[in-house]
Protein 1
Amino acid sequence: MALRTAKQYLDSLRDDRVVYYAGERIKDVVAHPDFGLRALENSRQYGHGADEDAATLALRTMTLPDGERIHRWLAPPRSREDLLKFVEMEETMPGDAHGAMAAGLTGLQILARKMDAKYGKSYTPRIDAYVDWFARNDLHGAFAMTDAKGDRSKPPSGQADPDLWLRVIERRKDGIVIRGAKTSVTSAALANELLVLPTHGMGSADADWSVACAVSANTPGVVMISNYAGAPWGERFRFDRPLSHSSFHHDATVIFNDVFVPNDRVFMDGEFEFTRELLGYFTTLHRTGVLIREPRGTKKLIGAAQLMARYNGLEGVGAIRGTIAEMIQTAQLLEALRYTALNRVQIVEGICVPDPVACNLAGLTVSGTRESYVTFLCELCGGPVLTAPSGLDLQNPETADMVKKYYVGKAGVGAEDRLRLVKYIYDLGASDASGWERAAGVTAAGSPGARRVAVGRGFDLEGCVKMVINELS
Ligand SMILES: Cc1cc2nc3c(=O)[nH]c(=O)nc-3n(C[C@H](O)[C@H](O)[C@H](O)COP(=O)(O)OP(=O)(O)OC[C@H]3O[C@@H](n4cnc5c(N)ncnc54)[C@H](O)[C@@H]3O)c2cc1C
């Protein structure tokens, strides 16, 4: 199949999938006023399909050895060049990121080879065929990993209700039946395919929960309940919410009510001892997301701080310069980590994996600094970050002149420019959307705790102790 167009992607979502949102079932996720916005944004990834302009095709697509052109986000990076191109593509893409889905498929391709070598299974041809089919049909995927979990101190097999972690409840000749729920699945209701992966490293008692498979979004038994994100404020508030006025993001709890999965879609069933390694590859590849957003995200905060200080005539104040200097150190550190992550790569089973320590350190650096930088921005704005008149009052002839008179900055800085920046900072640090960003930044690609574990993995702690013992002796 050729590259899909935006229309083909949107039409593919009208497939009788079961989606609930804000207390009711949505029959058509494309026509829905909130969901439709995100579907439309995603559809821009597809555009005119093979008739896109040459620059976009060069950025977003690649050619398979047999000449078929596919979207780059559907193919695992096989070389450092592939990885760099993937990162470059994701940096400019509207709508859903594809790093997690690519990471899941890639992690499974690596592990399939290892599981087959150990057990003589045939996961490798299955996952390779699935990845090929997925790419050639130009599908949109969501990864469904995070289990409901229940009592977090206990493994899946220790839960009062065994369904709290998704599990295999029946094995048939032609496939398996799964039951459970995956939470926080980004854009599940706007995907064609759901990739189910185990959340944690499993023990021997947890073989039934050690399952990875692919399920189409409209498979009987799949029910999606989306979080209520609320209608975005809309175009009218473009000035007041420059970052979020028309954006809509949704995550769904995906419930698998005894869903049959045919054998050719089952990529792990019971091989609990491989789950930890799978997670290692998955999280490393997934966390390249932070390299995609950063250091650019931190640089934007620096730009906003410097500009606000300039507008207010405070650019030369020592304390402000000191904090901006700290922010610059963080941005430079993130650049260095990005460089390390994308250069200290490993080729594992033919897949290019970025440096896990650098990826996870970048994530920890952002989650440990962003909050205080955003607070600093709010401080620089002063009260207007919350209290300034709206852009609508700038347009209203009855109030415009008064707002323009009293919201100027230093000489030469007009009220409109200054308020535009104040609203930008509001949307970064004080709006409803900024609260979402703040919480998402903490856990979206794994909690800081998980990242710390990843950073410490393989570190020679006892070697450090020995160094001191040697110095003492
Ligand atoms: C915006 C957003 C988008 C997301 N998108 C996706 C997606 O597309 N697909 C997907 O599968 N997931 C997704 N996630 C889920 C995300 O990966 C998880 O939120 C994250 O891994 C944490 O898991 P949890 O939410 O179940 O929290 P929990 O596991 O309940 O963790 C809560 C806290 O408790 C701590 N904790 C948990 N267990 C233990 C323990 N045994 N010992 C000590 N501390 C513990 C954790 O470190 C954490 O700080 C998304 C999350 C967000 C916020």
Protein 2
Amino acid sequence: MMFIYSGTGNSYHVARRIADALDHKIIDMAVAHRYNRHTYDAEGGDVIFVVPVYCMGLPHTVMEFASKLDVRNPGKVYCVSTFAGSSGVEAHQLSEQLNGRLTVDGCFGVRMPNNAVSYSEPPTPEEASEILAQADAETDSIIERIRNGDVGDMRTIRYEGDDGDGMYAGYEDFRVTEHFHVNDRCIECRVCEEVCNTRVIKIYHRKPVWDEEKCDMCMSCLNLCPKQAIEYGDSTQGRRRYFHKDYKNKVLGIPLRY
Ligand SMILES: Cc1cc2nc3c(=O)[nH]c(=O)nc-3n(C[C@H](O)[C@H](O)[C@H](O)COP(=O)(O)O)c2cc1C
């Protein structure tokens, strides 16, 4: 079984490739957490987490979900992360949240296009396709290693410093929603509300409002807005947006109105 979290489809794409090759069922952690589903039976099969790296660590919802997760009869447990620059302390954090109920046997990382528009501009379409081609090759080698039952830290790109936890502390300030705003390009399509992993976006007077103090900062609202009407402070203005073309598969069943 496979537990995934994805803001803009990169992790979903990697997860889908692995799940198809190894015949795994995909469970979306954002949805499972929302409906309070934390108990599973792996029936002796491997348990694979596929997650994006946020501020060197895990998305808030993944931390919360993992702290409650109970999986019976697990095989080997793997953490596969996607990131734009380097992986960080995500596998370590996952182990901590699982607190001995599951032990992470192996971790991998896949470099994908950057979706954190507020940090830096996402790649051009040409740059993105180059990164994605390399990512598919990396994912195929991960599939073989999982098939072989390999264990250990098998990430090819990783942060070598010792302040990963310190950098993760910055995530708490970053995920404050007051910086989000919508401009008059908004066509009131409600895509942002539909794609929000934490369901913090509410529609008031036909426009989105971020109705909780904090969210996961998955950036799906900002990147998926068909009119680029959502900004985060001043930092995202004039910058490209990014989402993986597989995103629409992630939200199968949700009527995206493009
Ligand atoms: C809030 C936030 C923080 C991020 N922090 C990092 C980071 O610390 N290191 C990194 O390499 N990429 C970072 N990224 C980039 C994502 O990890 C990367 O684009 C990932 O593949 C997105 O996956 P998704 O499309 O499944 O959401 C960050 C993205 C977001 C939205």
Protein 3
Amino acid sequence: MQKSLFFILSLVTIFLFTSCTDDLGGGEYQEDIQPTYSLRKSCASHQHMENLLSDPEYKKQYDNRIASFNKSKTNTFEKALCNSPTIIPVAIHYQGVNNPNASCLIDLAKKQVDILNADFQGKNSDINKWTSNASSSFPSVNFGETCLKFCIADQNHPSGYGVSNGQPAITINKTQGDQINAWSGYLNIYVQFGTGALGYAPLGGAGNGDGVVIEATAFGAGSGCGSVRPENPYDLGRTTTHEVGHYLLLDHIWGDGCGQDDDVADTPNQATDNSGCPSLGIQSCNSSDLHMNYMDYTNDACMYMFTSGQSQRMETYLASSLSNLIHKASSVCSEAAQNGGGGNGDGGNGDTICDTPESNSVNQITQTSAYFNWTGSDDAIKYQLRYRVQGTSWTKINTTSPEATVSDLIPNTTYQYRIRTRCDFGWTAQTVIQTFTTEAGNNENDDDDSGNTSSNSFKVEITLDDFGSETSWFIVDNDNNLVAQGGPYRDGINGRVKSKNIELSNDCYTFVIEDYYGDGICCDYGDGSARIVNTNRTVIVESDGNFGTYDELNFCIEGSSTKLGKRKKDVKKKSLARKR
Ligand SMILES: [Zn+2]
């Protein structure tokens, strides 16, 4: 059954994050009128494709790719033994990541590519759900095992993206958008925030620097890296599997309803998309739905196979219309990378990765000087040490080697210090604030106008709800430097108060409390809340816990007084339903 592919705009379910802003002093918050959108798997590929095809030049090249594909398709396809898989060079581009943790992001990308390889080769650990159970409901369907190998490129990178020869092609905050000419010949994976969907891809990619776009909360698997964190139920890397399926010319499993299929012979017709985790045997179009297919919209844990027809289609498209990717592989993927290494820089020591110094020390402390050194990174451009007496402004020292001597200190005085690294992608996060005290002098030094610094100790207190693993918080100063952070915590300790002592000087701060599930920390599963108190236990700022994904509280410390600023919070979406 042929269909007029690609011109049908499927309705895309988007999830909106509404927020309202109010002055803290203003009191009440208005709950916005709740949208009826729900969080579920959605993919904006059809809409993306329609946009692309509105460009006549793109359309012409697209038609050529499909014509080559159709020509190849008529040949008998014999599945060869997969002794030497076709290598697909991959580059991953993280975009707009605050305080990126480079080594963590690199590991996350490697994990995602491992998932791609397993899923496309039919070697995923959950394929037994098909082989030992679901397959009996689909006697004419075999699961797919492509002879493809995704390889994170590790050599001959385009210049200007902060990756040197031998390192994996993973860029951090060096690109924008979803098509970059310099990265032609690669399957690019663009990891972005705020795509409005879980992801999108062209239906049949071009290899011209285009690629798949994945929402940062649906990329990779595991605990993630700060804000780049896969969220249940899209936390097993299957959004990328789905989008790469589109890139290799797979349509959604349901095509466009019972009358028009997805142009793959062995997939049963299906009326529409499935979501969540459907029971085996649900039917539409007089046959069982193949809802465990990667090209449906079900939860990551409930999709685990391509069909052999889909695999054949993808391999044919790659061979007929993406030969530039295949040719590129030999020059950008070393043998080590092809064998799964994904470039060096891993293997435990990690010292070639540009990152926040792992450890540091301060010694040789005298009345007026101190010597600092810290763990360096091979790819660091420079480092910045900042130090101050609590309550005063930072003095900053830039240095190209991982050490510095400071020599204008006041005797018998406690200083704070922290260090960060300048990498190709920008500044890393700072080390946590640490302190040291200079030696006492013979003379009283009265060059001290900050005598009442002792009032700068505060305590962050988080009262947990029943889902502590969803809760975390951080405080940044006026320059967006991370000052303190905490969480996530354990589940099942509803009502427990987690506290942390912090030091704040005269500056303005933002205290952000987050719940990654999106249902706040009050009041459905406990009465969670968050606040900062001073040493007299006076409340400085407080969140009632009734928010969606975050509650952001701004405040300033001015000596012994504090001033409240704006509050911004994400409103809880009432449609969130627990599936645990
Ligand atoms: Zn899709």
